[in-house]
Amino acid sequence: MSSIDPIQKSLNRLAEQAEPSTKGQKATPQTAQPIEVGTPLQFLPGIGLQRVELFHKLGVRRATDLLFLFPRSYQDIAPYQSITELEPGLRASVIGQVVDMDQRVSFEGRSSVGILLAIEGGGYVRCVWYNQPFRRQQFTHGMRVIATGMAKSTGISFEMRHPETTILAVDQPLPEAKPIPIYPLTEGLQQRHVATAVAAVLENLIGSIDEALPESIRLSANPYSVPRTKPATHLGSSGVSESAKDQKQPAPLLGIAQALRSIHQPNTIEEANEARHRFIFQELFVYQLALAMRRHRLQHDKPAPKIVSSPMIHARILKRFGFELTRDQLKAIDDVRVDMGQDVPMNRLIQGDVGSGKTVIAQYAMLNAVASKHQAALMAPTELLARQHFSRLQKQLSGSQVMIELLVGSITQRERTELLQRIAIGTVDLVVGTQALLSERVQFESLGLVVIDEQHKFGVQQRANLRESRLVPHYLVLSATPIPRTIAMTIFGDLDVSVLRDKPPGRAIVHTYLGSTAQQAKWWEFVVKQVQSGRQAYVVSPRVESDPEAEIVGAEEVYRQLSEGPLAGLRIELLHGRMDGNEKQMKLDSFTKGQTQVLVATTVVEVGIDVPNATVMTILDADRMGLAQLHQLRGRISRGSFPGYVCVFAKPGVAPEENARLSVLASTDDGFRLAEQDLQMRGPGDLLGTKQIGLPPLRIADLVRDSEILSRAREIAQSIVEQDPNLELAEHAKLKRQVTLRHGAVVTLGDVG
Ligand code: ADP
Ligand code: MG
To answer: In whole angstroms, how far apart are CA 548 and each of 430, 441, 553, 580?
Structure first.
C-alpha cells in the first residue's frame, strides 16, 4: 500500500490545517450524535468500527478529514447507458422499470433482496442487496428507478450488487447525470463507502471550516471564470487551465464552503474543476508564501558586505579566463555583479545545462569577493570535484597574490588545524572543500561569498552554520542539472535565477546511440579505434559489484573482462566510489593527464569531471539510470572540440529503443528539453533520479498540469509578502496559520535537521 503514503501524509497535515472555528461546536457528542469537526469516525453513519481502520489508512482520522479527502478524478456518466453499452466491471447508470422482485434467506441466514429492472430501450438488469432486508420496502412493481453501480455479466443479463438507486416519480423528467467522484481507496474500502461517509459530514461541517483565502486573493487568483456552458467532458490532463482560458469574465475562486461541496458532489465536471482549481491554487499558494517569506527573511535578516566590482577589477577578472564568455555567461555575471554590490545578501541560482560553463560564473564571483578583501568558499558535493575545482583555480590564479586552499577529508589532522587557523585570521582568500567539511563550523575572518556547486536541493543546512557573524555572505548556487521551470519555481523558489542556455562556442556535437547486445563487439572495436587515434574513453557501469540475480555486471567485472578481452592492450583503469580519496585522485589524475586511456567507472564520474580529450562513453545497464543522470554522464564527453560518441546498452534482453527514457536521451541533447520530457513522463516525484529533491508533498496540485496556476500563485504570494512580510495583517492570519502548520520548516531560516 505504498501508494497511500503520500496521501496519508498530506492528510495528516490537512487535519491540522482544517482549522475548525468554534462556532457550531457543542459539548455533547454522544447523545443526539450531532456531527462535529472532531466526531470520531465510528459515530458517522455508514462507517462502523471495522471500517474506521481502513479510513485511518487513508489518513482520515476525524470527521473533517473526510472533507479534505479529495476525489482523484470523476467519472462522468452522461447520459444513461443502454444495455448494449454496459461492460462488465465498469460503473454505469441505467434507467428501468421494476418488473420483478424477490427476497430470500439463505441456509446460513444471509438475506438477499433483488429487483429486476426492464431497461428502457431493451434488456434487463438485476439489482441485488445482501443483508439489507429493508430494501424490499423501498421498491414496488412498476417503479422507474435509476441504478448506478458496477455491472456484472451473469451470462444472459447483467447484475449490479449494492447499486445506488434513485426512484423517479411518474413522468418526472430525467435528472441530469452527475459526475461520480472517484476517491483514493485502500483495500477493503469501496467508492460508495467513502461517498456515503463524505455525504454524512458535508452539510454538517461545511459551515465550520474557516476560509483561509480572503476574497481579494480569490479574485486575483482567478482572472477568468470557468465557463459553465461547455458540455461536460472528462476531467482531462488540462481540465482546469484550458477551460479557464476560454471565457474572460472575472470571478473569484470559489469560497471554501462552495468549493468543498462542489469537489465532492459536483453537478457538472466544470463545477468540479472550479472547485479543484481553488484547492490547487491554495496548495501551491501556501507553499509559495512560505518560500516568499523565507526569501524575505534571507534578505532582511542580516546584511551582507557590499562588494562593488569596479570596471577595472571586472576587466581584470574576465581576462583571466582565456576565452570569450558566452552571452548568457556575461548576462549571469552582470546579475551577480549587481547582487554582490548591494548589502542585501545575494541568493542566486545559476541554472545551466551540463557543460554550459557554470563554473565561470562561480570563479568570477569568488575573484570579485577576493578583490575587495573578502574571503570566498566553494563547496562541492564530492572530494573529487573539490580537488578539480581547486586545481583549476590554482592554474587560473598562478602568478597572482590570491591564496587558495583545499579543505577535504583526506588531509591530516595537523594540516587541517593549521588551515582552519589561517582561514580564521584571514590569510586564506579562497577555500575549496566538500559541503560536509565547509558546513561544519569553520570560522572565517571575513566571508563574503559562498558558492555551492552541483546543488540538487536548496542549501538550507549549509546556510545555517555560517550565519553567526554580523554580516552574512552572499550565496551563489550552481544547479546540478537543468530543471523545468515549474519545478525550479518550487524547489528553488526562494532564489533568483540566471539561466545559461547557450553553450560555449566550438563545441562539437555528441552522437548518442542505442546499442543492442549483438552490436557490442562492433562498438568495442570502435572504442579501440578512437583511443588509438588519441582520444580517451569512459565505460560506466552503475554498480561496483556484480549481482548475478539481477543480471548486473559490476564495474570490477567489466574492468576485468574488458582488459582481458575487447580492450586488451589499452591502458585501462578502474575508478569507483569505494576507493579511498587518494586512490581515486590518482586514478583521475592519470586519466586527466592522458596516461590512462580508458576509465571504467561507476557513476562517480557523473558529476563535474572535466577531461576534454575524453570523447567516447559506453554506458552499461543504462535502463537502470534516470534520464538526468544519463544526460549528466553524457555531458562528460562534450567538453572539447572533438565530436563525442556515447552508446547506451540496456541489460541483456532489453532493447534500448523500447525504453522510453533511453529513446528520449537519444532524441535530444538539450538538457532543458530533456528535463521537460522527463517531467511529463515520470511526474515530478521521480524527477532528477532522486527522491530527495526538496519538493513539498502535493495532494491535489500537479506541477506539470497546473503550471499556470503555479505562476499565478507565485506572483500573488510575492506581492502579498512584499506588503506584509510576516503575514501580520488580520486578513492574513488564517493564511499564516496554514503556512506555519504546513511549511514551518521552510520559513524558519536554516534550523532544519
Ligand atoms: P558546467 O556548467 O557543466 O559546470 P564547466 O563550467 O565545467 O561546465 O565548463 C565546461 C568546460 O567549458 C570547461 O572546460 C570550461 O573551461 C569551458 N568553458 C566554459 N565557458 C567557456 C567559454 N565561454 N568558451 C570556451 N570554453 C568555455
Ligand atoms: Mg560544473
So the answer is: 47, 45, 7, 26
